[in-house]
Design goal:
Elements (H helix, E strand, L loop, with lengths): L2 H7 L13 H12 L11 E5 L2 H7 L14 E8 L4 H24 L3 E6 L3 H8 L5 E10 L17 H4 L10
Antiparallel strand pairs: 1-2, 2-4, 3-4
Helix pairs in contact: 1-4, 2-4
Length: about 180
């Protein structure tokens, strides 16, 4: 799949086939995250990969909308340092968003579906993942082969029209 096809095929997948992801494919997805640009090349992230079924079920309880984690073949926890400064925290989370998207596109390229999740219960996440006190689990990225249909470029994505989203030069009309 080329880059544009990966972008147009990628969608949130929350129901997965019960088959493992080959380690070389999982490592490729992780390498995409590792190679992601970060502010001043700080690379403040770490990734914890979870494939154990019981651990995935427990991890799915860190946020109300993380139930898809329990059925995934693997979930990547994106871990970041606990940061007191608001500006620095914004930079760290922007970088984590970029790493997440890099991994999502690499997964789509391999036919692997993904869904992202926030983390509300840091104490539970820290316990399940063995994180030190100076780290938080910022996000989860579940992975697996889609149970409903394979990833293919979407002809009519459910997105706002281009002309409503893109503004050239300055904001124009609309909400």
């Amino acid at each position: 799949m080329d880059t544009w096809d990966a972008i147009t095929a990628r969608r949130n997948v929350r129901a997965y086939e019960q088959r493992p992801i080959p380690s070389e494919d999982l490592n490729r997805v992780l390498e995409a995250g590792r190679r992601t640009p970060s502010s001043m090349n700080s690379q403040t992230w770490d990734f914890v990969v979870v494939t154990d079924r019981d651990q995935l079920a427990a991890l799915s309880k860190v946020w109300t909308y993380a139930t898809h984690v329990a059925g995934s073949a693997a979930t990547i926890a994106l871990v970041a340092p606990v940061v007191a400064d608001d500006g620095e925290r914004l930079v760290v989370h922007y970088d984590l968003g970029q790493a997440t998207m890099s991994m999502m596109l690499a997964a789509a390229d391999l036919g692997i579906g993904t869904a992202h999740s926030a983390v509300a219960d840091q104490d539970l996440a820290r316990t399940l993942l063995g994180l030190p006190a100076d780290r938080d689990c910022a996000y989860l990225l579940s992975l697996g082969y889609p149970a409903d249909r394979p990833l293919r470029p979407l002809k009519r994505p459910n997105r706002r029209p281009f002309e409503d989203v893109v503004h050239f030069g300055q904001w124009r009309g609309g909400a």
